Amino acid sequence: NSLGAISLCLCLCFASHIEKHNSSVGVENILSTWSFKSVGLGTKITRLKITDYHVHCTVMSRYALTTVESTVWNQFHLTKEAAFEVDLPASAFISNFTITSGGKVYVAQVKERAAARKFYDAAKKHGKIAGLVATKSRETEKFRVVVSMPPAIHMSFSISYEELLTRRLGRYELALGLRPGQPVQNLSVDITIAEQSGISFMKVLPLRTSRLLSMPPSTQVQQNPYCAHIHYSPTLEQQRNLSPKGLNADFVIQYDVELKDLMGDIQVLDGYFVHYFAPRALPVVSKDVIFVIDISGSMIGNKIKQTKAAMSTILDELREGDYFNLITFSDKVHTWKKGRTVQATKQNIQEAKEFVRKISAEGWTNINAALLSAAHLVNPSSSSSASHSLSPRRVPMIIFLTDGEATIGVTAQDAILHNAQSALGSVSLFGLAFGDDADFPLLKRLALENRGIARMVFEDADAALQLKGFYDEVASPLLSDIQLSYLEDQAYDVTRVLFPNYFQGSELVVTGKIKSGVQEMQVSLTANDSKQKLKVESKARLAKSKGNETATFLDCKGSLGGIYSFVQRLWAYFTIKELLLAKINSTDSLAQQLLAEKATNLSLKYNFVTPVTSLVVVKPDTDKYPTSISSIPTSPVTTTTESVMTNTVSPGKHLPPSSLKSTTTLLPSTNKTISAKISSKASTTMSTMLMDGDPHFFVKLPNLQQNLCFTVDGRANDVLRLLEDPEKGIIVEGHLILAPTKRGVEEHTRTFFDKITIKIAKGGISVTLMIDSVVVKGEGLHSLPTTQQGSVTYLDLKIVLDGHQSCWIDFGKGMLFLVVFHRYSHPSYYQMEHLGFYIADGEGLSSLTQGLLGMLHFLIFLVCFTVHGAGFHHAQTSKNTSLAMGLLMKGNQHIPVTLQDKNLKITPSKRLLAQCWVVPKVEVERLLGHSYESYLVDHL
């Protein structure tokens, strides 16, 4: 068995610059602790043969899903080490990693960072081989894993990552790294781009870092107004012509979209929306710009030469309506024109270029003094600034370049941040960190707090082009102080809507959730342009559709699999990034903790590797440890045990810990006891009635050894009343989410429950259950991760999590509910994590109980067999699936049913092939006695 010789534990901590100085475990510590020396990277790796290397990328409305697959063959007679390395865009989130060997697939788990570390340490303690990657190279992250391969076997690696393409300088750019390290017989790149608003232009660039001057040979392009498919499959000879070592380049595509409406493009899918705002043909607003340049001793050499070259070019591109000034600083600050900005006339530009030519590098670094001097020049609110030269219609900005840390004057970060924010007011600060020694975290926070952005400039031969490229992005402001507003009764959980500036060639993106039933969305825009304050209102008709319908409508011939729910994932992508930025920008430790927890839970829910999660995959040594990887829990794990958090899907108000008269425990021994008691109590009445699946309903008919099954065709984002007992004061509601359709039955809409809320009038308690957390709210709030054992007791109510897949809600007195968490270790494209609701014991419910499931509890049914099809509608029976026909008697109504074999989930952990009387969909409303709409509620 080839698997027996594979021993692997991979832990990928996707650590970005923003976490470097803000986490208890820094990037440097992780790299030194988990260096690749532990997997033998200090020795030479014999090159194994790569037989296949394929890159698949789907771009749906700027959101890109990329999968890189590589198959390696150990052609030797000894065990060798195989390396898999991929360049990832810095803004991307990994969403899947698998290793396939011997016909078995090993899927990496996304875990909370601390939990992953414990998991990794435990595997390492048992002698597993381990490796970690968190290295940075230019605008990419390096993903690299090394595993041991037995002789004569094939092993496949696959990694998927997701990103939103950013519009810069009037185009989107998709760059896919092709660096297999050797010529590959079967190498291909397949890209499908689908843009609902239309593609205005698209071009394939020469391979980046190659000497090609045109599109790579063996590239095929098919395009229509809305879609493009690009296929690249170079021969071995073509690969060797580029390099004997094969491809070592980026395959780059640039394109832009049609966007004629000033208010942009709004797209809606599965209850989520995304608003792309990128108006064209607006006049450029003049700017007041201060260039602040670090000339300390560390800039000596190429850095100062490249900076001077870039500044000379930038000064030539200032518009005549612009005003500017120059500041250089080391331990002292020098201002070119004292106390004012000057117009960008030819003479002033020539004098400024002469000033730049003469600067030289020496001395220390006084960042604080340089910032205050720049603010003195450009902030109109400063009493000592030259406000007479400033126009309210010019955009004030500072471009600040440094290559180091503050070494003289005010050096404390908090003091520098406070001073800058007080002095700059409404001025936008853009920070450029030149080289690895620059204090990028400080520049990032300065930019975040002062209406700007920060960017790294790398110490390469093209550093001057990098500087010039960044200036080009901010050189042409079109709007300032932009606010995009959406009506509260139409949209919620909306991401950032306030933007300080909109620059020519860029794009502003807002995403959020749409309330059920909204057909038309009202959007308001307020902003300042070159002459006036704009206020525009627009109504957008929402064309709701499923992703596969959109693809068909756009006539996309390439595969769009796996990205149909892109708007929802885009919302999660944006929300996580904003939570992490807010964490950086916060100085309150409790707020930082809450923000990190929200980001962690969203990352786990959507399987994203982010700065707060890690990627772990383990294959135990089967000779020593017979337990296979399939027995290891594959559900995401968080270690939030004492924290307080609200609904992770709906960031909003945070409630403090309470003095609630309840007990919360996460002690496994205690929970096993409680869970065992409840399970025992439920064993005799388990699954008398349940809702689980699409949603599928299952009822054990009273006094009969018969089962009744039916399905309700739900709608995405609807909230259904499942049970309501006014006498007991209990309400159960479920929120539906759209799932991908199965192949061959695309016309059938599939929905699942992703949230269930149980409300108890006594004590004002609500229990909100989601795939990753259970939140109990009374006078205060308790939150339990669903992947750990835990319990909450409040008065007579007991809520017990078994730590794997179910939660028991025990009211006592003959009322016991169960919620099952359905997770998939290796989901197919149509599988979706969801919840199932079971009435394990309903003896204590009153006769007044209503709701989709509750109303069936006290009804009396009889089933009579029939030998003919009288009463059956067309297509209600199937010769292949129906074992018998019958009539379900409900009062004086006779409802046709068919007896079928069904794979029933009668317990949370066991499926059983059993017979069930199936109610046709056309008869479900008659069975329930009410329409589908009558079970809808306004909110959850």
From TrEMBL:
GO terms for cellular component: extracellular region. It is found in: Secreted. Keywords: Glycoprotein, Membrane, Protease inhibitor, Secreted, Serine protease inhibitor, Signal, Transmembrane, Transmembrane helix. One of its GO terms (molecular function) is serine-type endopeptidase inhibitor activity. The keyword Nucleotide-binding does not apply. Residues 288-474 form the VWFA domain. The chain crosses the membrane at residues 852-872. SMART domains: VIT, VWA. Residues 34-163 form the VIT domain. Residues 1-15 form the signal peptide. GO terms for biological process: hyaluronan metabolic process. Belongs to the ITIH family. This is Inter-alpha-trypsin inhibitor heavy chain family member 6. It comes from Electrophorus electricus.
